[in-house]
């Protein structure tokens, strides 16, 4: 849904209480749309308070969003989706770590909450679009189909976490900040000019439902301790851990092995096995991945053509692009080969494919192929 749509739309603006969503709602209203603001109460304890730039969905965020809506001059509501968020995002996050995978809760939230639960409710109430403060662009083609593209400013681009959106969801998505060729300070200046109190509010970062940033502590409270071994590639025990879920592929710090490798070089997490509760560590070059298999593909608009094709891929929200060859097999599996090996790729992460600036789609990494090393 583009900002220059030929008719006045009924728009539901998701207002997190931050500066981006407030400016997005203000721009949608300024463009002449009939905008209603809504804050999603997603926290199990909505009366909690923020810790600096950590956390979201607190009572402070709700109040900040309401004040912004009042300044913009739009109606405002708070919708409680905490139970749905817990089931679809938080419980999924815990289960993925328990299974030895590394999930991305932001993608899951966009897929299951903002552009599923929220969108479905919005459409049922007669709204035409859901507006958010994401930095991405929806392009309407002459044939009526839509494409998701990177934001004009690559430094702020958030298309990676929107790579799960399908054609129906794109048809009802509005991203007023996507064409912004401005710095974040300039967005804050715009918010200040509009009289929005959130102009100087710190951005949220890390995982929104882990306010203190302690992912391992969060998981330990829910999964308990599960002592196991830390081993090298030969299977020799180097140390112990309190739960394999506390590690991620490529991790270097916090291994607590107690003694260096024979070559004196650092060791990294190579594998996490929930079956025997072991964490395998080894040298950095053992992290080199040459290919992967991904499942549950979702296409942003039209699906890719049959057969192998060349794309660029992004493997994490703030990562760079890498060239790949990808092919959809049997409609369910994406087989990907990297032109050059990449490191730190973990099952559970999302791979998002791009054709230029266009987001082709995404899939969840199921397994990886490592480069065979001399002497390994």
UniProtKB/TrEMBL annotation:
PANTHER family named among the record's database cross-references: MITOCHONDRIAL TRNA-SPECIFIC 2-THIOURIDYLASE 1, TRNA 5-METHYLAMINOMETHYL-2-THIOURIDYLATE -METHYLTRANSFERASE
Pfam family, any one: tRNA_Me_trans_M
Region annotated Interaction with tRNA, chain positions: 156-158
Location within or outside the cell: Cytoplasm
Cross-referenced NCBIfam families: PRK00143.1, trmU
Function: Catalyzes the 2-thiolation of uridine at the wobble position (U34) of tRNA, leading to the formation of s(2)U34.
UniProt xrefs under InterPro entries: MnmA-like, MnmA-like_C, MnmA-like_central, MnmA-like_central_sf, Rossmann-like_a/b/a_fold
Annotated tRNA-specific 2-thiouridylase MnmA-like C-terminal domain residues: 290-365
UniProt site positions, description: Interaction with tRNA: 134, 349
Catalysis: reaction(s): S-sulfanyl-L-cysteinyl-[protein] + uridine(34) in tRNA + AH2 + ATP = 2-thiouridine(34) in tRNA + L-cysteinyl-[protein] + A + AMP + diphosphate + H(+)
Protein name according to UniProt: tRNA-specific 2-thiouridylase MnmA
Active-site residues, record numbering mapped to chain: 109, 208
CDD domains: MnmA_TRMU-like
Enzyme's top EC category: transferase
Gene3D superfamilies per UniProt: Adenine nucleotide alpha hydrolases-like domains (2.30.30.280), HUPs (3.40.50.620), Translation factors (2.40.30.10)
């Amino acid at each position: 849904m583009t900002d220059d749509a030929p008719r006045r739309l009924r728009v539901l603006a998701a207002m997190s209480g931050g500066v981006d969503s407030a400016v997005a709602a203000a721009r949608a209203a300024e463009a002449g749309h009939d905008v209603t603001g809504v804050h999603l109460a997603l926290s199990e304890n909505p009366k909690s308070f923020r810790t600096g730039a950590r956390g979201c969905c607190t009572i402070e965020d709700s109040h900040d969003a309401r004040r912004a809506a009042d300044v913009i001059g739009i109606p405002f509501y708070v919708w409680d989706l905490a139970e749905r968020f817990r089931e679809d995002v938080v419980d999924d996050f815990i289960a993925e770590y328990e299974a030895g995978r590394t999930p991305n809760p932001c993608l899951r939230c966009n897929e299951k909450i903002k552009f599923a639960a929220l969108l479905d409710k919005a459409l049922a109430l007669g709204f035409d679009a859901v507006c958010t403060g994401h930095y991405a662009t929806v392009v309407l083609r002459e044939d009526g189909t839509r494409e998701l593209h990177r934001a004009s400013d690559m430094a702020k681009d958030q298309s990676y976490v929107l790579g799960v959106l399908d054609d129906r969801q794109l048809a009802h998505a509005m991203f007023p900040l996507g064409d912004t060729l401005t710095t974040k300070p300039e967005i804050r200046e715009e918010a200040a000019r509009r009289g929005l109190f959130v102009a100087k509010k710190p951005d949220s970062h890390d995982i929104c439902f882990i306010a203190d940033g302690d992912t391992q502590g969060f998981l330990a409270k829910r999964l308990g301790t599960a002592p196991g071994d830390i081993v090298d590639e030969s299977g020799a025990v180097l140390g112990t851990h309190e739960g394999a879920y506390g590690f991620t592929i490529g991790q270097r710090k916090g291994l607590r092995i107690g003694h260096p490798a024979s070559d004196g070089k650092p060791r990294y997490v190579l594998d996490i096995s929930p079956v025997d509760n072991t964490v395998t560590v080894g040298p950095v070059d053992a992290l080199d991945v040459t290919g992967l298999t991904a499942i549950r593909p979702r296409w942003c608009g039209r699906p890719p053509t049959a057969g192998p094709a060349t794309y660029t891929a992004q493997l994490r929200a703030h990562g760079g692009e890498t060239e790949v060859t990808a092919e959809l097999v049997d409609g369910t599996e994406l087989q990907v080969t990297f032109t050059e090996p990449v490191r730190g790729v973990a099952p559970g992460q999302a791979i998002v494919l791009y054709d230029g600036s266009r987001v082709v789609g995404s899939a969840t990494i199921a397994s990886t192929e490592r480069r065979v090393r001399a002497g390994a």
